[in-house]
Amino acid sequence: MLYAILCYNDEAAVDAWPKAKDDAVIAKRRSVTDRLAEKGQLGPVLRLMNTTAATTVRYGAEPIVIDGPFAETKEQLLGLYVIDVASLDEAVEVARQMAGKNGDGGSGAFEIRPLRAFIPDNVKRETMIS
Amino acid sequence: MTTDLTWIDTALKSARPQAVAALLRYFRGDLDRAEEAFQEACLRALQNWPEKGPPRDPAAWLIFVGRNSGVDAARRSLKHVALPEDDSLTDGEDVQDDMAERLDGAQYRDDILRLLFICCHPDLPNTQQIALALRIVSGLTVAEIASAFLVSESAMEQRITRAKRRIGEADIAFATPGAADRAERLGVVAAMLYLLFNEGYSASGGDALIRQPLCLEAIRLARLLLRLFPSEPEIMGLAALMLLQHARAAARLDTAGQIVLLDDQDRSRWDADLIQEGLALLDKAIRHQRPGPMQVQAAIAALHARAAKPEDTDWTQIVQLYETLEKMQPSPVIALNRAVAVSKADSPEAALDMIAPLAPALANYFYFFGVKGALLQQLGRNDEARIAFDRAIALARTPAEAAHIRQHLDKLSKTA
Predict the structure, then answer these.
(1) Spatial separation of the C-alpha atoms in residues B392 and B404, rounded to whole Å
(2) What is the pLDDT of residue A128?
(3) Which of B12, B273, B290, B304 is the best residue to mutate to test the A interface, defined by the most A CB atoms within 10 Å of its own CB?
(4) Is the dihedral of CA B316, B318, B319, B325 positive or negative?
(5) ipTM summary value
(6) Domains along chain B?
(7) Pairing of strands A45-48, A109-112
(8) Which of A16, A66, A67 has the CB atom closest to B10's CB atom?
(9) Distance, in angstroms, between A67 CA and closest chain B CA?
(10) pLDDT for the residue numbered B304
(11) B319 CB contacts (<8 Å, ≥6 apart)?
């Protein structure tokens, strides 16, 4: 069985961590995930950027693009896609296509969050900056 | 229960702007009373939270408790009624359920904006605006602020007291601001936060490390504004600008703490995480197609961030962005920056022609003579360059600035 483990925390508090603390937390986590990786049991590890970098696309015949994270509580996180495109415009366009006529006719949304880190690093950091 | 209580400090610090801002509204602009009430609430939190655990919404808890304690204090000063015992406080959950209904996000947002805005009173000099925001909004101690501003604690205490008195006399509007007022407040606050950032960023020498927390605080407040106003492209631009500039922090100073110019920085020491976040925010801002000065400056910083080597820098586009910025905010300093970009994109001659008309406006500006000297030097006009550099040294405000110009003069002496 494949499981996703989703990380929740107070981002204002995490933002305030000095780099040393951030590195220390990641290192501690790795003591767990490295053991899984050795046994071939670790899938992709993602770190999302701050929610202030988020954009939300709401389902609809004409999907609506909203700045900021997905904030409703009546819907639940059901899955995610990782895509490699040149700009937020392109990412919004992909979400728009999925939320529009290719949507499920319901009332969901896609939240677009830039990634800070992707392990294994097959999306190169250089391409993330350029 | 863990004995490590740093989580309480972190929670109190991150709840502070929201809590003090709401208390200020309850106490109709009485800043001292709002601060006292917040202190009181923090003391209660330190007594209650270790045992009962963190409340679901720490800010709401602090506002509720602070408001009651403030009311108590007011009542006490009138009738000498004793404060209630701690155990008469309802436990955390009731407090929160009560508060959750009464406080909605929109009110928080205008509260915090108002709190930041009153620190920007136009009668207060810039440094006082920043000091006041650090004291009231961020909750830094007077000693911490004094050290960041390199002045004595008593001098800073006086400054803050005077600034508080000034805004106490001002008539602050507590009604929910209209769209135009809100936009104006946001613009003023954004400019103040960028000044705060620059107080830390422009430091050099031994002061650089002491002042870096100012940059971090400015970034923290910009992120807070962004959470409150998620659709404002200029606030996205402000945060992007700070992140892109702060990304260079480690490469900007040499081991002696002297400033290393952009061209000479080891770009592998730039912080890739901060650059990515800055670029993502700028990308998000540009989609709105409502350009403003913060976004343009962030776009310039982004072009530097994207260049792996100095010679990869897209100077032509930087020249265009400075032209745009100058149209938005005509200023001889921006014109000077544009000239520097022109010297790279075109030629030092063209840049020299551009700065000539700026001379009267910038007659006492250190950087003007530094640029002029460097351009003349590139053209081999060494005698004139020396005169410009001498003038720059005379105008330098810090030993680091003077030392930097002296390096140019040393190079000139070697080639002469």
Answers:
(1) 10
(2) 53
(3) B273
(4) positive
(5) 0.84
(6) 6-103 (no CATH), 104-167+179-230 (no CATH), 235-313 (no CATH), 330-416 (1.25.40.10)
(7) unpaired
(8) A16
(9) 5
(10) 97
(11) B338, B341, B342, B345, B346
